[in-house]
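Hi V.,

You were right to ask for the full record rather than a summary. Here it is.
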Amino acid sequence: MKRSIINLLLSCLLLLLCCDDEEETGFHGIILRDATGLAMGTKGSSDLDDWEQDSSLPGKIKKRMDNLAASDLTGTDYALIDIVAYPNPCVDAAYVEFDVEGGPCELKIVVVNESNEVLYNTKYVGSSTTHSFDLSDPDKVPNNSIVRIYYAFSQESDNYFYVGHGDIWVCRTGDCL
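Predicted structure:
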């Protein structure tokens, strides 16, 4: 009887610990960069996945990307991807360089605030590119808040071969560090 209760409790604990990625709202760990993209360390708990390849996208984000109009992926190919976001923190605009070695490929982007409200979504087919994001609206992006940029690269025979996310910290007062 005790063993059954313990197993039941352990099962319940596992269910509670397994969080639904759709409900994830806490962003943490910022890779600090100056206005030229030079790394300046980190702030907060380390998020080793920022600006790297993740294993998957949250379901809600993938659906949003799937709903973007289809692109002609003829002639696209795999690529090595390198991503740098700067400045971080930013005052009202952030830039993200997507360095694509190989390709060309399709890039889809979804940007959300801490309430998971979509601020931007876009797509691009080509090689290396830099995207800028206007984060100046204090109603959608308050001072000392974080936005998350999700990205996905696809090519002709492989949708979402490289996916990930990165966080941008918005600091308008200059004293957030």
